[in-house]
């Protein structure tokens, strides 16, 4: 399926009036820097100007392309697929009005016409796809920064919101696919594909329900054996299951069955969107870690909160070796606590943080470090961020700089070096929990 995410040519079908879906997708493709051929198609012909470029709108597709993105009325989609089938490898059908509103026969006709020509279909009733490393933004959703997360979403709107949240949280993406009704390609196909995609480090999956449970179990197990798979399941309650059925026409089924499948396959289930991206941030940085955590903080309260959360999550506060404790005592002020959590007190500067991180990291009883910083007004957060960056440590290191404007510059400096910030001690602790599940 790589032609979907790394295409060399694309045709966009629909209206190219400003604000129309096809126009917005075309604009996203052009502004996103796509380097292949771009062909807008509409029966009205004429030209369209997008991002300073003028394209001739063709009345019909008359040359081969890898992908067709279709945003025309649902009732003409099957015939269009039949017409252009010999010229395309895959189609992304944005158009709604198929099985999700009861038009099952129309959707069946769409799939049959595609199969006749060996064409694969994403959708219908979807928000499109991104192949971020291929500079291909074949959707009307917000563009994202390149990175390692592939987001698979049954819901287009959820996907759009999730992309925006990911941007805000410093998550980088390898791909995005909204698959809607899954008339042909579905979540199992994408799990298998991204499991083998070299640009994808972790997979995030939002599902409401699946149609082929055995196939899903097999695909999920395969993907989770290769890289972290983070799952957010909607439709857990009875009312939620009914809403899911009316949304994409899928059967949500018993949540207990899904939960058992996730566990058996080795996937990591999260409860909320926020957790989805916190887990993704953790796995973008590190593949896994053990359960023994050392907490380093300049503020006692957040250190206690982190300790409480770590233990509640089933992680362990690492028991530091006596050699480590003596080394810490040799350079830390006597007011500092050298027990885990290690409290560097409020005036902790660059040198105190850097030396503590390096000393604790060398302790063989420590699997990972959680570094907390609540900077006083007389120590810039950038100074502590630089200490984290400069410290020589080869173990997973999760940071919690808080809060808001006080740490904005420090967080920016960390993110420039690929170190993601978790805004509360509890969220940082959860990040370590997810890493320990691999």
TrEMBL record:
* EC code: 6.2.1.13
Q: Keywords assigned by UniProt? A: ATP-binding, Ligase, Nucleotide-binding
Name of one Pfam family that matches? CoA_binding_2
Protein name from the UniProt record? acetate--CoA ligase (ADP-forming)
**InterPro entries noted in UniProt:** Acyl-CoA_Synth/Transferase, CoA-bd, Ligase_CoA_dom, NAD(P)-bd_dom_sf, Succ_CoA_lig_flav_dom, Succinyl-CoA_synth-like
Highest taxon of source: Archaea
The reaction(s) annotated as catalysed by this protein in its Swiss-Prot or TrEMBL entry are: acetate + ATP + CoA = acetyl-CoA + ADP + phosphate
Task: Please state every residue range assigned to the domain named CoA-binding.
Answer: 4-98
Q: Which GO terms describe its molecular function?
A: acetate-CoA ligase (ADP-forming) activity; ATP binding
